[in-house]
Amino acid sequence: MNLRFDLLDILPAVPLSAHAIAAGILVGQAYFQKWTALKLPLTASSKPSSVVVAHRTNGYLTMAAMLTMATSGFVLGRHGRFPGLSYFNFAFAAPWLGMCYQLYRSVQSRDWLYHQLIGNMIVRSCLAVPLARVIGAMLQQHDHVSNATGYYGGIGLASVCIGAWQLNDWKEYLRLQDMQTGR
Hints:
Blueprint: H1 13-39, H2 50-77, H3 85-108, H4 112-140, H5 147-181
Helix pairs in contact: 1-2, 1-4, 2-3, 3-4, 4-5
């Protein structure tokens, strides 16, 4: 069972390879980041520990993978035949770019609670992409569902599932933010 995507022409090899490789790397890096985050010291020291250095270095690599995946995926979108794909393609890439910016911003402002929230969003987004592909492929198996409807439907349903999960994180973030500010 494969997700079908109707093409106008053959996908160019460089952006296709960049998109696939960056996406694969991103998943491993995002999970490695969560693993190192569990081992980070709770207080700062004058000399960063090896875990802090690994987390920081992998963080930059993670952002590079996110940018590569999103921009190469955006380039690939113009080769698709689905109606409204150019708008949808932008809407799909934009959150990755936004998360990358917010991740960087949270580090610069040393807002570790927000940094954790964004990190969780990235991990959940890494789960959403394969989930969307599986759901989309399952929808496309039905005779009355077009390839485009299955493709968009899979992404929509996965987004709702992951979005509901993420809402819980936002609620917890706001609760902890209130505790920090004494509200």
